[in-house]
From TrEMBL:
Stated name of the protein: Acyl-CoA dehydrogenase type 2 domain protein
GO cellular-component term (any): cytoplasm
Family in the record: Belongs to the HpaH/HsaA monooxygenase family.
Residue intervals of the Acyl-CoA dehydrogenase/oxidase N-terminal domain: 18-123
Statement: the UniProt record of this protein carries the keyword Chaperone: no
Provenance organism: Methylobacterium nodulans (strain LMG 21967 / CNCM I-2342 / ORS 2060)
Length: 407
């Protein structure tokens, strides 16, 4: 069934359905065991491997480089569909897709070509940016020091989402002088310890825990000549979360509709002999579905803004791209509170359409709220409205980076 036939609206391009049909069988396989894996805390090693084998991790690469030439709106629509199957898997691949954008946008040909080639071979990248230590805001305790012709890495990272499943870890650190430096670290290199100690009540299967680097030797070619990120990075990474939330809401909407259709027990004070004909219950189902639809529409509109930045940047107009990047950040920021509120409300409201049996752990309906609440806690939404208001009133552009640390 196409996205249009399912009532979720047209995709972002004429070819979207053909592109999505390639991956939907994998999405369905992932979905089949999502609730069970969440309940048993079984990490999605197999599921991510299925996506890699299907070519999902090379979506943004050119066809000539084993990719699909997917636009950013196409990518984000696919991430909504993947998130409806299992939002953990989307989050585990977030750093990989971000690093792919780094490679595609790199101003250094040798670095760009090397990483496009690795990604084309199916290699994946996890996150090694955030820390939970005592470093001040804007700095890192993790240090990458020059060591002869190479480098030596020491430090600890947290929120290393996806690194346990990846071939490489994208690192943000400081050099011996305190300057920012980026690198790609082989996950299985001597001295790299990836620890599955993430204990959040949601997104529990993303392996977002600790990575320790102890005297890890890196060759010079693994240190990025540009320590910055691609121009639309802030909007991109937050938009992955919005797409994930839209997918969670879509899954919740489909589950509650199915369960209402299957339910045979009714309340004596209800409105019909069948729950599926009770107008108050149908109203709840409709509200949940409406929230999911709206969240998806907003996310795809945001994706158009990010695509504009990419196209302008590729054309070499850096000044216009900088301005477009600020506007994309605003578009995403002013969507965060709206989308998260829609999805958090929907994933609570769905229980009003069902009886107490819907709280059974075997159904796993609670995971939708838990996962949405966890995602909404990243880069706190309480600051987003202020940033947008400051832009609207004073013309202030959003910050280019969000960092956490000691004040």
């Amino acid at each position: 069934m196409s996205q249009i036939q399912a009532g979720w609206g047209a995709g972002p391009s004429a070819r979207y359905e053909d592109l999505a049909e390639r991956f939907r069988p994998v999405f369905r396989r992932i979905c089949e065991t999502a609730a069970e894996r969440d309940r048993d805390r079984r990490l999605p090693h197999e599921e991510i491997a299925w996506l890699r084998e299907a070519g999902f991790t090379t979506l943004r690469l050119p066809r000539a480089r084993n990719g699909h030439d997917a636009t950013l709106p196409e990518l984000f629509n696919l991430l909504i569909e993947l998130s409806a199957a299992d939002s953990n898997v989307t989050n585990a691949l977030r750093a990989h897709f971000g690093f792919t954008e780094d490679a595609l946008n790199s101003r250094f040909p040798a670095w760009r070509e090397a990483w496009i080639e690795r990604i084309a071979r199916g290699e994946t990248v996890g996150s090694g940016v955030s820390e939970s230590g005592s470093a001040k805001v804007g700095s890192f305790e993790t240090v990458l020091r020059r060591d002869g012709a190479g480098w030596r890495l020491n430090g600890t990272k947290y929120y290393t989402t996806g690194s346990l499943f990846a071939d490489w870890i994208h690192l943000a650190a400081e050099d011996e002088s305190g300057a920012p430096v980026g690198a790609a670290v082989p996950r299985r290199a001597p001295g790299v310890a990836v620890i599955d100690d993430w204990d959040g009540f949601g997104q529990a299967l993303t392996a977002s825990g600790t990575v320790r680097f102890t005297d890890v030797a890196l060759t010079a070619d693994l240190v990025n000549p540009d320590p910055g990120r691609f121009r639309y990075a802030m909007a991109f990474f937050q938009l992955v979360h919005l797409a994930t939330l839209a997918g969670i809401a879509r899954a919740a909407a489909e589950d509650v509709a199915r369960l209402v259709g299957e339910r045979r027990r009714v309340y004596s004070h209800g409105n019909a002999a069948r729950i599926a004909e009770d107008p108050q219950v149908l109203q709840v189902v409709g509200r949940v579905r409406g929230a999911a639809y709206a969240a998806g529409v907003v996310a795809l509109k945001n994706a158009e803004a990010v695509q504009r930045v990419y196209e302008i940047d590729q054309a070499g107009d850096s000044e216009t791209a900088e301005a477009a990047g600020a506007v994309a950040d605003i578009e995403v920021n002013q969507s965060v509170t709206v989308v998260t509120s829609l999805v958090l409300d929907a994933t609570t409201l769905l229980f009003d359409a069902l009886g107490a049996s819907a709280t059974a752990r075997s159904l796993g309906l609670d995971r939708y709220w838990r996962n949405a609440r966890t995602i909404a806690s990243h880069n706190p939404r309480i600051y987003r409205d202020r940033i947008v208001g400051d832009f609207a009133v004073n013309g202030t552009v959003p910050p280019k980076q969000y960092r956490v640390g000691q004040g």
